[in-house]
Specification:
By secondary structure, the protein is an alpha/beta fold. It has two domains: 2-217, Rossmann fold; 243-312. It has 13 helices and eleven strands. The protein has a six-stranded mixed β-sheet with strand order 3-2-1-4-6-5, with helices on both faces. The longest helix is centred in the last third of the chain and has 30 residues, at 211-240. The radius of gyration is 23 Å and the shape is globular.
Length: 324
Protein backbone atom coordinates (compact mmCIF):
# COMPACT_ATOMS: atom_id res chain seq x y z
CA UNK A 1 0.00 0.00 0.00
CA UNK A 2 2.90 2.33 0.72
CA UNK A 3 4.03 1.93 -2.90
CA UNK A 4 0.56 2.72 -4.25
CA UNK A 5 0.22 5.80 -2.05
CA UNK A 6 3.64 7.05 -3.15
CA UNK A 7 2.57 6.42 -6.76
CA UNK A 8 -0.64 8.44 -6.31
CA UNK A 9 1.21 11.33 -4.64
CA UNK A 10 3.60 11.53 -7.59
CA UNK A 11 1.18 10.70 -10.42
CA UNK A 12 -1.35 13.37 -9.49
CA UNK A 13 1.14 15.97 -8.19
CA UNK A 14 -0.50 15.96 -4.78
CA UNK A 15 2.42 17.62 -3.01
CA UNK A 16 3.41 20.09 -5.72
CA UNK A 17 1.58 23.03 -4.14
CA UNK A 18 2.32 22.24 -0.50
CA UNK A 19 4.21 19.64 1.56
CA UNK A 20 2.27 20.30 4.75
CA UNK A 21 -0.45 17.64 4.90
CA UNK A 22 -3.39 17.43 7.31
CA UNK A 23 -5.13 14.05 7.40
CA UNK A 24 -8.89 14.02 7.84
CA UNK A 25 -8.92 11.41 10.61
CA UNK A 26 -12.29 9.82 11.32
CA UNK A 27 -10.78 6.89 13.25
CA UNK A 28 -11.85 4.27 10.71
CA UNK A 29 -9.47 1.84 9.01
CA UNK A 30 -9.04 3.95 5.87
CA UNK A 31 -8.09 7.18 7.62
CA UNK A 32 -5.89 5.42 10.21
CA UNK A 33 -4.03 3.60 7.43
CA UNK A 34 -3.66 6.90 5.58
CA UNK A 35 -2.17 8.57 8.65
CA UNK A 36 0.19 5.65 9.17
CA UNK A 37 1.46 5.42 5.60
CA UNK A 38 1.93 9.18 5.24
CA UNK A 39 3.89 9.15 8.49
CA UNK A 40 6.10 6.44 6.96
CA UNK A 41 6.62 8.53 3.83
CA UNK A 42 7.03 11.90 5.55
CA UNK A 43 10.81 11.66 5.92
CA UNK A 44 11.67 10.66 2.38
CA UNK A 45 9.18 13.14 0.91
CA UNK A 46 10.11 16.05 3.23
CA UNK A 47 6.48 16.25 4.35
CA UNK A 48 5.11 17.64 7.61
CA UNK A 49 2.05 15.87 8.97
CA UNK A 50 -0.93 16.87 11.12
CA UNK A 51 -4.50 15.66 11.54
CA UNK A 52 -7.99 16.96 12.11
CA UNK A 53 -11.03 15.14 13.46
CA UNK A 54 -14.63 16.28 13.14
CA UNK A 55 -17.13 15.11 15.77
CA UNK A 56 -20.49 15.41 13.99
CA UNK A 57 -22.45 14.81 17.23
CA UNK A 58 -24.68 12.33 15.40
CA UNK A 59 -24.01 9.06 17.26
CA UNK A 60 -23.88 10.11 20.89
CA UNK A 61 -21.34 8.15 22.92
CA UNK A 62 -19.96 6.51 19.78
CA UNK A 63 -19.06 9.91 18.31
CA UNK A 64 -17.28 10.84 21.54
CA UNK A 65 -15.48 7.47 21.49
CA UNK A 66 -14.20 8.20 17.96
CA UNK A 67 -12.97 11.64 19.04
CA UNK A 68 -11.11 10.21 22.04
CA UNK A 69 -9.59 7.49 19.84
CA UNK A 70 -8.36 10.02 17.26
CA UNK A 71 -6.77 12.14 19.97
CA UNK A 72 -5.10 9.08 21.52
CA UNK A 73 -3.77 7.76 18.20
CA UNK A 74 -2.24 11.11 17.25
CA UNK A 75 -0.67 11.47 20.69
CA UNK A 76 0.88 8.01 20.35
CA UNK A 77 2.20 8.78 16.85
CA UNK A 78 3.40 12.27 17.76
CA UNK A 79 1.12 13.94 15.20
CA UNK A 80 -0.52 17.30 16.10
CA UNK A 81 -4.32 17.18 15.84
CA UNK A 82 -7.10 19.74 15.70
CA UNK A 83 -10.57 18.57 16.79
CA UNK A 84 -13.83 20.22 15.72
CA UNK A 85 -17.29 19.64 17.16
CA UNK A 86 -20.32 20.43 15.02
CA UNK A 87 -24.04 19.86 15.54
CA UNK A 88 -25.24 18.51 12.21
CA UNK A 89 -28.92 18.18 13.06
CA UNK A 90 -29.14 21.73 14.42
CA UNK A 91 -27.31 23.10 11.37
CA UNK A 92 -29.37 21.42 8.64
CA UNK A 93 -30.78 23.88 6.13
CA UNK A 94 -34.18 23.70 4.49
CA UNK A 95 -34.38 20.80 2.00
CA UNK A 96 -30.88 19.70 3.09
CA UNK A 97 -30.33 16.09 4.15
CA UNK A 98 -28.29 15.07 7.18
CA UNK A 99 -25.61 13.71 4.84
CA UNK A 100 -25.46 16.97 2.87
CA UNK A 101 -25.27 19.04 6.05
CA UNK A 102 -22.53 16.82 7.51
CA UNK A 103 -20.50 17.12 4.32
CA UNK A 104 -20.91 20.92 4.23
CA UNK A 105 -19.82 21.30 7.85
CA UNK A 106 -16.99 18.80 7.44
CA UNK A 107 -15.45 20.63 4.52
CA UNK A 108 -15.89 23.90 6.38
CA UNK A 109 -13.79 22.44 9.19
CA UNK A 110 -11.25 21.21 6.66
CA UNK A 111 -10.95 24.80 5.46
CA UNK A 112 -10.26 25.98 9.01
CA UNK A 113 -7.65 23.26 9.49
CA UNK A 114 -5.95 24.22 6.24
CA UNK A 115 -5.67 27.77 7.50
CA UNK A 116 -4.34 26.73 10.90
CA UNK A 117 -1.71 24.30 9.60
CA UNK A 118 -1.01 25.99 6.24
CA UNK A 119 -1.63 22.64 4.58
CA UNK A 120 -3.50 20.59 2.06
CA UNK A 121 -6.14 18.19 3.42
CA UNK A 122 -5.73 14.47 2.76
CA UNK A 123 -8.98 12.51 2.87
CA UNK A 124 -9.11 8.72 2.99
CA UNK A 125 -11.21 8.05 -0.12
CA UNK A 126 -10.23 4.75 -1.74
CA UNK A 127 -10.75 3.21 -5.17
CA UNK A 128 -13.81 1.50 -3.70
CA UNK A 129 -15.30 4.84 -2.62
CA UNK A 130 -14.78 6.14 -6.14
CA UNK A 131 -16.50 3.08 -7.66
CA UNK A 132 -19.46 3.58 -5.30
CA UNK A 133 -19.68 7.22 -6.38
CA UNK A 134 -19.72 6.20 -10.05
CA UNK A 135 -22.58 3.76 -9.45
CA UNK A 136 -24.54 6.37 -7.47
CA UNK A 137 -24.08 8.86 -10.31
CA UNK A 138 -25.23 6.26 -12.84
CA UNK A 139 -28.44 5.78 -10.84
CA UNK A 140 -29.08 9.53 -11.05
CA UNK A 141 -28.38 9.68 -14.79
CA UNK A 142 -24.90 11.16 -14.99
CA UNK A 143 -22.78 12.74 -17.69
CA UNK A 144 -19.11 12.01 -18.24
CA UNK A 145 -18.07 14.09 -15.22
CA UNK A 146 -20.01 11.72 -12.97
CA UNK A 147 -18.27 8.74 -14.55
CA UNK A 148 -14.89 10.23 -13.58
CA UNK A 149 -15.54 9.29 -9.95
CA UNK A 150 -13.84 11.05 -7.06
CA UNK A 151 -11.08 13.41 -8.27
CA UNK A 152 -7.63 12.64 -6.82
CA UNK A 153 -6.97 16.37 -6.31
CA UNK A 154 -9.46 19.23 -6.04
CA UNK A 155 -9.38 22.60 -4.32
CA UNK A 156 -6.75 21.91 -1.66
CA UNK A 157 -8.04 18.36 -1.06
CA UNK A 158 -5.86 15.37 -1.96
CA UNK A 159 -6.79 11.67 -1.91
CA UNK A 160 -3.62 9.60 -1.56
CA UNK A 161 -5.55 6.30 -1.16
CA UNK A 162 -7.35 6.65 -4.50
CA UNK A 163 -5.32 3.76 -5.99
CA UNK A 164 -5.87 1.52 -2.93
CA UNK A 165 -8.74 -0.75 -1.91
CA UNK A 166 -10.49 -0.91 1.44
CA UNK A 167 -9.10 -4.41 1.93
CA UNK A 168 -5.57 -3.02 1.57
CA UNK A 169 -6.15 -0.36 4.22
CA UNK A 170 -7.51 -2.91 6.69
CA UNK A 171 -4.58 -5.23 5.98
CA UNK A 172 -2.14 -2.31 6.48
CA UNK A 173 -3.64 -1.60 9.89
CA UNK A 174 -3.38 -5.26 10.90
CA UNK A 175 0.22 -5.72 9.77
CA UNK A 176 1.37 -2.43 11.34
CA UNK A 177 -0.48 -2.86 14.63
CA UNK A 178 -2.71 0.17 14.08
CA UNK A 179 -6.05 0.05 15.88
CA UNK A 180 -9.14 1.65 14.39
CA UNK A 181 -12.81 2.11 15.24
CA UNK A 182 -15.88 1.23 13.20
CA UNK A 183 -18.73 3.64 12.55
CA UNK A 184 -21.83 1.51 13.23
CA UNK A 185 -23.84 3.42 10.61
CA UNK A 186 -21.49 2.07 7.91
CA UNK A 187 -22.82 -1.41 8.66
CA UNK A 188 -26.45 -0.44 8.05
CA UNK A 189 -28.26 -0.57 4.72
CA UNK A 190 -30.45 2.49 5.22
CA UNK A 191 -28.69 4.73 2.68
CA UNK A 192 -27.91 4.32 -1.01
CA UNK A 193 -24.12 4.24 -0.66
CA UNK A 194 -24.21 1.49 1.95
CA UNK A 195 -26.59 -0.63 -0.13
CA UNK A 196 -24.29 -0.21 -3.13
CA UNK A 197 -21.27 -1.13 -0.99
CA UNK A 198 -22.83 -4.17 0.69
CA UNK A 199 -25.08 -5.54 -2.06
CA UNK A 200 -24.42 -4.18 -5.54
CA UNK A 201 -20.61 -4.27 -5.68
CA UNK A 202 -20.33 -7.83 -4.28
CA UNK A 203 -22.81 -8.93 -6.96
CA UNK A 204 -20.81 -7.20 -9.71
CA UNK A 205 -17.64 -8.80 -8.37
CA UNK A 206 -19.22 -12.18 -9.08
CA UNK A 207 -19.06 -11.24 -12.78
CA UNK A 208 -15.62 -9.60 -12.48
CA UNK A 209 -13.58 -10.11 -9.30
CA UNK A 210 -11.47 -7.12 -10.39
CA UNK A 211 -14.50 -4.84 -10.72
CA UNK A 212 -13.01 -2.06 -8.55
CA UNK A 213 -9.80 -2.06 -10.60
CA UNK A 214 -11.82 -2.01 -13.83
CA UNK A 215 -13.81 1.02 -12.65
CA UNK A 216 -10.56 2.74 -11.63
CA UNK A 217 -9.20 2.31 -15.17
CA UNK A 218 -12.42 3.72 -16.60
CA UNK A 219 -12.51 6.72 -14.27
CA UNK A 220 -8.92 7.59 -15.14
CA UNK A 221 -9.67 7.51 -18.88
CA UNK A 222 -12.90 9.50 -18.46
CA UNK A 223 -11.13 12.00 -16.21
CA UNK A 224 -8.49 12.62 -18.89
CA UNK A 225 -11.21 13.18 -21.51
CA UNK A 226 -13.18 15.45 -19.19
CA UNK A 227 -10.08 17.50 -18.35
CA UNK A 228 -9.35 18.05 -22.05
CA UNK A 229 -12.95 19.03 -22.82
CA UNK A 230 -13.05 21.44 -19.87
CA UNK A 231 -9.84 23.16 -20.99
CA UNK A 232 -11.05 23.34 -24.59
CA UNK A 233 -14.43 24.72 -23.50
CA UNK A 234 -12.70 27.41 -21.43
CA UNK A 235 -10.73 28.54 -24.51
CA UNK A 236 -13.90 28.59 -26.62
CA UNK A 237 -15.71 30.58 -23.94
CA UNK A 238 -12.95 33.18 -23.97
CA UNK A 239 -13.17 33.44 -27.75
CA UNK A 240 -16.95 33.98 -27.54
CA UNK A 241 -16.69 36.74 -24.95
CA UNK A 242 -18.15 40.09 -25.85
CA UNK A 243 -19.24 43.20 -24.01
CA UNK A 244 -21.82 42.24 -21.40
CA UNK A 245 -21.56 38.48 -21.88
CA UNK A 246 -21.12 36.06 -24.77
CA UNK A 247 -21.81 36.34 -28.49
CA UNK A 248 -24.87 34.07 -28.79
CA UNK A 249 -24.23 33.44 -32.50
CA UNK A 250 -20.74 32.11 -31.84
CA UNK A 251 -22.00 30.05 -28.92
CA UNK A 252 -24.60 28.52 -31.21
CA UNK A 253 -21.86 27.27 -33.53
CA UNK A 254 -20.12 25.29 -30.78
CA UNK A 255 -20.36 21.51 -30.54
CA UNK A 256 -23.13 20.60 -28.03
CA UNK A 257 -20.60 18.97 -25.64
CA UNK A 258 -18.53 22.17 -25.59
CA UNK A 259 -21.54 24.48 -25.35
CA UNK A 260 -22.84 22.45 -22.39
CA UNK A 261 -19.58 23.06 -20.52
CA UNK A 262 -19.44 26.76 -21.37
CA UNK A 263 -22.98 27.29 -20.09
CA UNK A 264 -22.43 25.13 -16.98
CA UNK A 265 -19.31 27.10 -16.10
CA UNK A 266 -21.15 30.41 -16.48
CA UNK A 267 -24.02 29.16 -14.30
CA UNK A 268 -21.60 28.15 -11.54
CA UNK A 269 -19.86 31.53 -11.76
CA UNK A 270 -23.25 33.14 -11.07
CA UNK A 271 -24.17 30.88 -8.17
CA UNK A 272 -26.56 28.63 -10.10
CA UNK A 273 -26.31 24.84 -9.89
CA UNK A 274 -25.84 23.71 -13.53
CA UNK A 275 -28.49 20.99 -13.85
CA UNK A 276 -29.11 19.48 -17.28
CA UNK A 277 -32.54 21.17 -17.38
CA UNK A 278 -31.07 24.63 -16.76
CA UNK A 279 -28.32 24.13 -19.32
CA UNK A 280 -30.96 22.96 -21.83
CA UNK A 281 -33.05 26.08 -21.12
CA UNK A 282 -30.01 28.27 -21.81
CA UNK A 283 -29.17 26.30 -24.96
CA UNK A 284 -32.70 26.83 -26.28
CA UNK A 285 -32.41 30.60 -25.63
CA UNK A 286 -29.12 30.71 -27.52
CA UNK A 287 -30.56 28.76 -30.46
CA UNK A 288 -33.63 31.03 -30.52
CA UNK A 289 -31.49 34.18 -30.39
CA UNK A 290 -33.68 36.10 -27.95
CA UNK A 291 -35.66 35.93 -24.72
CA UNK A 292 -35.05 35.05 -21.10
CA UNK A 293 -35.81 32.25 -18.65
CA UNK A 294 -36.02 32.14 -14.84
CA UNK A 295 -33.40 29.56 -13.80
CA UNK A 296 -34.08 29.77 -10.07
CA UNK A 297 -35.41 32.32 -7.59
CA UNK A 298 -33.60 35.55 -8.64
CA UNK A 299 -31.40 34.26 -11.48
CA UNK A 300 -32.31 34.73 -15.14
CA UNK A 301 -30.61 33.61 -18.35
CA UNK A 302 -31.05 36.19 -21.11
CA UNK A 303 -30.27 36.68 -24.78
CA UNK A 304 -30.59 40.29 -25.85
CA UNK A 305 -29.11 41.93 -28.94
CA UNK A 306 -27.29 38.66 -29.70
CA UNK A 307 -25.60 38.63 -26.28
CA UNK A 308 -26.09 35.75 -23.82
CA UNK A 309 -25.72 36.59 -20.12
CA UNK A 310 -26.94 35.66 -16.63
CA UNK A 311 -28.43 38.38 -14.50
CA UNK A 312 -29.82 38.72 -10.98
CA UNK A 313 -33.26 40.29 -10.62
CA UNK A 314 -34.64 40.40 -7.09
CA UNK A 315 -38.30 39.39 -7.15
CA UNK A 316 -40.92 40.16 -4.51
CA UNK A 317 -41.96 36.85 -3.01
CA UNK A 318 -44.47 36.33 -0.27
CA UNK A 319 -42.66 36.60 3.05
CA UNK A 320 -39.67 38.52 1.67
CA UNK A 321 -39.13 42.03 3.00
CA UNK A 322 -38.86 44.71 0.28
CA UNK A 323 -35.34 45.70 -0.74
CA UNK A 324 -34.35 49.18 0.51
Amino acid sequence: MKTRVAEALKKYGMLEACRNVTVGLSGGADSCALLGVLRELSGELDMSLSACHINHSLRGAESDRDEAFARSLCERLGVPIEVYRVDVRASAGKHESIEETARRLRYGCFGEARGKFGSVIATAHTAGDSAETVLMNLLRGTGTKGLAGIPPVRGGIIRPLILCTREQTENYCRTHGIDYVTDSTNLEDDCTRNRIRHKVIPLLEEFNPSFIAAVSRMTEAVSDDESFLAEYAARCAQECRTEGGYDSRRLGELHPAVLFRVIASELRANGVEPSRLRVSQCTELIRRGMGRVNLCRDKFACVRKKVFFIRTEFQQYKGRAPEN
